[in-house]
Amino acid sequence: MGGADASDLGRLRWRCRRGMRELDELLTNYLTERFPGADPVEQAAFRQLLDFPDADLNDFCLRLRQPPGAALRDVIARITTRSFAGH
Length: 87
Fold this sequence. Notes:
This protein starts with 5 loop residues before the first helix and ends in a 6-residue tail after the last helix. The longest helix has 13 residues, at 21-33. It has a single domain, classed as Flavinator of succinate dehydrogenase (DNA polymerase, domain 1). It has helices at residues 6-16, 21-33, 40-49, 54-61, 70-81. It is 62% helix and 0% strand.
């Protein structure tokens, strides 16, 4: 699952809408600022993250728990530190 066209980004933006405003902002900022230039592995990891329930995502972002797998941990680190540079 490589790049994303406009309709795909729209669907992902919708999936970034969560029950918690903080998560909405973190995920949407990542999607807008980093996702389009990310490599396919990172994009796939972000898509996979969106499958987690809000409570799990919140725990990951607050670093209360680690997501499974290095790719998911890397995406969470980028999301929470806003290290979107280096496309």
